[in-house]
Amino acid sequence: MARYTGPQCRLCRAEGSKLFLKGERCFSDHCSVTKKRPAPGKGLRSRQGKRSDYGLQLREKQKMKRIYCMLEKQFKITFQKAARMPGRTGDSFISLLEKRLDNVIYRLRFAASRKQARQLVSHGHILVNGKRVNIPSYQLKIGDKVELGEKAKKLLFVKESMKEYTRSGVAPWLEVNPDELVGYFRAIPRRNDVADLADIKEQLVVEFYSK
User: Fold this and answer.
1) Which of 10, 20, 112, 180 has the most CB atoms within 10 Å of its CB?
2) What is the mean pLDDT of residues 139-150?
3) Nearest to 4 by CA among 78, 62, 76
């Protein structure tokens, strides 16, 4: 499967905002966005101007897709599922993205970033209700139990990542036992509960795909 292997900071510079693709390291003073480095591209300043409605929608879609570390095909398929669900499409879309197994591993503080969480899942280190699951896009249900395998519990980056739990806890729809490295999916995530997406305008993404 294809994946982006280039520099992560380049993606943040392209969007002009922090996407937290490197987890806690994005808070450091060395962050390219903090340093206000310009967006990548030769002669960019000379081409800058007022963006069209399509341009705004495209950039918002790209930003949201990059936050969840997804490729275009998978991202669009997820949107199409959300469009068929009752209620607001934007809210359903975010809910589906938040219920992904790799995202939940990141939210439980078992990994410092979604990319790292996806690696844990793909390498078979994650158990859901006692069964090994290696599909990052696996959709969790209320009551599901998520835990790390015995080998993963000994990984240094997992222990380092769990330090964030002591500082800021976990999302309100999740519950975690930090001693046993076991988490529980307690409720369907609501749009207002996803604090780190406060700057995302999901309606622009809905408009982009609805054309």
Assistant:
1) 112
2) 97
3) 62
Provide the residue ranges of all domains of the chain, joining segments of one domain with +. 8-97+197-209, 101-187
Two tokens, residue 134: 């290696």
Task: For 59, list phi and psi in degrees, rounded to 5.
Answer: -65, -40
The CATH homologous superfamily to which domain 101-187 belongs is RNA-binding S4 domain (3.10.290.10)
What are the C-alpha distances in Å from 29 to residues 17, 18, 33, 196?
Answer: 14, 12, 9, 20
Residue 127, both tokens:
């158990």
The model's pLDDT over 153-186, given as tens digits with 9 standing for 90+, comes to: 999 999 999 998 888 889 999 999 999 999 999 9
- C-alpha–C-alpha distance, residues 115 and 155, integer Å: 16
The distance in angstroms from the start CA to the end CA of the chain is 28
pTM above 0.70, yes or no: yes
**What is the chain's alpha carbon radius of gyration, rounded to the nearest angstrom?**
18
* Structure-token pair, residue 181: 């490295």
Domain 8-97+197-209 sits in CATH at 1.10.1050.10
**DSSP 8-class letter at 32:** T
Cβ-contact 12, 67 below 8 angstroms = no
